[in-house]
Design a protein that fits this description.
125 residues; mainly alpha; 4 helices; 0% strand; elongated
């Protein structure tokens, strides 16, 4: 299921990125005309009329937001697809050795302080 979702996101992301490229190149070039003028910049005015720059700006912003959202969703889908699946039933159990007691069954240490060893008397006259 996740692989189908990844494939759909990839296709939509390719379409959106191609559409964003075309929309950006259709915008009117600035005074120092660069690549937009070389590839027919300003063509949107002949298609959309005199108010094309405002419409194209809004559309470019919407396409850019869609591009970043799709990129993030694609990232999340790929992370979900590569995440290891861990089920409780497949976890290894740790067995105690045969003679070992469980921690609850151990005797608590006595509260009496340990006695110090008798000091050797070193007084010799």
């Amino acid at each position: 299921m996740v692989t189908i979702l990844i494939s759909v996101f990839m296709f939509v992301l390719l379409v959106v990125s191609g559409l964003m490229t075309v929309i950006i190149l259709m915008q009117k070039p600035s005074a120092n005309a660069g690549m937009g003028a070389a590839l027919g910049g300003g063509a949107a005015e002949s298609v959309f009329g005199g108010e094309a720059s405002g419409q194209l700006l809004k559309f470019t912003v919407r396409i850019a937001v869609a591009f970043f959202l799709l990129s993030f969703l694609l990232y999340m889908a790929i992370v979900a697809a590569n995440r290891p699946v861990v089920a409780d039933a497949h976890l290894p159990s740790m067995a105690l050795p045969a003679g070992a007691a469980t921690p609850a069954a151990t005797k608590p240490a006595s509260s009496a302080p340990a006695t110090a060893p008798a000091a050797a008397s070193s007084s010799s006259k």
